[in-house]
Amino acid sequence: MGVIRRQSIKQSVVSYVGVGIGAISSLFIYPLDLETYGFLRFMIDSASLLAPIALLGIHFTAIRFYPRISASNTDRQGFLPFILMMVVFGFLLTSLIYFLLKDNLESFLLRNQDDPIFSQFVKYILPIALLVSLGILLTNYISIFRRIVVPAILNNIFLKVGTASIVLLSAYSIIKNQDSIYLLAAVYLFIIIGLGIYLKSLGELQFSRPTARLTKLFKEEMLEYSLYAMVTGIATILAFRIDTIMVSTLIDLKSTGVYSISLFLANAIAIPTVAVRNISGPIISDAWTQNQPGKISSLYKSTSLHLTIFGLLLYLLIMVSIADLVSLMPNSNELQGLIPLVAILGASKLIEMSMSVNNQIIVFSDQYKFNLVAVLILAVLNIFLTYFFIKVLNYGIIGAAMAAAISLTLYNLTKFLFIHLKFKMHPFSHKYIWIVLITTFIYLVTHLISFPDSALLKIIIKSIFVSVFFVILTYIFKVSEDFNTMVIDVYKKFKDNAQN
């Protein structure tokens, strides 16, 4: 338990550092060269789309089945070579599919692109996909040994620093635009080498011929699980990353850069969700095992309410200052579209937060396969709506945001209805009305008050004003007992420190 606690604390620190680097990069570095950043995002997301096929779901299979083979030293030493062989086979399969569809695929990707960097380097998606796949595999394999911090540093911090550095080098003409793809490949290669060295330091970089028992286990059990994981992985990427790829192919790379920055700001609203879901997952799993639906229902209501409270506060803080924030960013004249994008995408994140752990409730129940159905529906809907809003209605990147928001909302509503009908649970109460009214009231008041002309000073004053009054009104109207208790505890600690 000590290892888990230490690793969790360290990873939390890494995650917050990563968020800080992402914020600085999104606000002040990526706007310097939106086209290069858009190209890098397109390459990363396209490679991530191919990665589940190359991996064949083996990265999840490794975690699930390692306890079964770890008792045998021979099986354990042959396990890493075995899963690496599967990834090589998966990459060859992906390459075959790519080359069979090469002309049609590249024709689709390039039909709206006149940018030479795009047309010249789209062929490098495949090798980048191999590097991404190997990085994912090694990261998951290392997690088997309860080591998550070093992989998090490499995959989170180093990748973000690397991407930001490439954009900076391109923005100041230190490198040519076309060099960005080679540097991106170098970043991923460094990550793989780093993961390999770390695995060796753990004494787990072991190679021997896979045993007959391991091969038999794969045929009888691992193959089916791997295929299920692969389909789920593909559907998830299509559902949650296809929008940036389609913006690149249907509009242009600069629009992809703007859209990606808006995604970061919208995702910042949902940061508390990750921790809540990670903590709630084991509790929900245990409650299903112990047949305690009442415990799950109570947790569902509590987490949904508190995520909605904090989500609305973060959304409010961003929306009252977004115009001033954009004015401080480089090339602000090209970023005016950020405001409606963040408003739309952020609203969809709020709806997702209001339903909190609906995914965990389904995944850890005996109805877990419904999650794949829901993700597949989301993927198809997202692709259709994105194309419809961009090409048919000519809404541009606003259309992409609308498509993503509608798809994500319907996805969460589908899971909400499934849980309500199947398990007789729902998270909502009259308290949601109060918190929405409080948020709306504060938003309107900020537009009636005069603030200083300085954009930076205005952001600071608005943030303090919004935070203080949001906390006060939420406390007065007793939206949440836990929230009020937290406010009282913080006040007491502040008072005690002031007296001392």
Summarize the structure.
The protein has 500 residues and is mostly helical.
Describe, in plain words, how this protein is organized in 3D.
It is globular, with a radius of gyration of 24 Å. It is mainly α and 500 residues long. It is built from 20 helices and no strands. Helix 2 packs antiparallel against helix 10.
DSSP E strands, number = 0
Mean pLDDT score: 86
Structural class of the secondary elements? mainly alpha
Helix content: over 70%
Rg, please?
Answer: 24 Å
Please describe the biggest sheet, giving its number of strands, its sense, and whether it closes into a barrel. none
Number of domains: 2
Number of helical elements: 20
Uncertain segments: none
β content, as a range? under 5%
Straight-line N-to-C gap: 36 Å
What would you call the shape? Answer: globular
Q: Which H/E pattern describes the elements?
A: HHHHHHHHHHHHHHHHHHHH
Question: Secondary structure elements and their pairing?
Answer:
Layout: H1 2-29, H2 34-55, H3 58-69, H4 73-100, H5 102-110, H6 116-121, H7 125-143, H8 149-171, H9 180-201, H10 212-250, H11 253-269, H12 271-289, H13 293-328, H14 338-354, H15 358-363, H16 370-392, H17 396-423, H18 431-446, H19 455-476, H20 481-499
Helix pairs in contact: 1-8, 1-11, 2-4, 2-7, 2-8, 2-10, 2-11, 3-4, 3-7, 3-10, 4-7, 7-9, 8-9, 10-11, 10-16, 10-17, 11-13, 11-14, 12-13, 13-14, 13-18, 13-19, 14-17, 16-17, 18-19
